[in-house]
Amino acid sequence: xxxxxxxxxxxxxxxxxxxxxxxxxxxxxxxxxxxxxxxxxxxxxxxxxxxxxxxxxxxxxxxxxxxxxxxxxxxxxxxxxxxxxxxxxxxxxxxxxxxxxxxxxxxxxxxxxxxxxxxxxxxxxxxxxxxxxxxxxxxxxxxxxxx
Length: 147
Fold this sequence. Notes:
alpha+beta, Thiol Ester Dehydrase, Chain A, 3 helices
């Protein structure tokens, strides 16, 4: 049964966040936190640590993509239908520097019965855009994140 009111949908999105985050080893290892969630939207943040730096002293691009992917995962699962990535593209626009607080903010662009498209923007604490990410999702019909 689908929730139809905003408060029910918001509560469900929060339950999905809590359930996913409890066992999200990658998010915990990288020091990520889900700072906001609502149906079709999520924000995830992390602070760039010394062990995240590449040979040039900036955040490894793959870790920035991982942060964006995490926001994508929470946004597309916020409806409580088990959803996985079918692909994504990421453009790195600027460096993440040691101590930067990076936030990936994702939103639904289109969500069909199975396929979805989500845009995620990664910015630093000064509001400078670090990366843009477009994710494509696939819903596993009939499977829920929380029951």
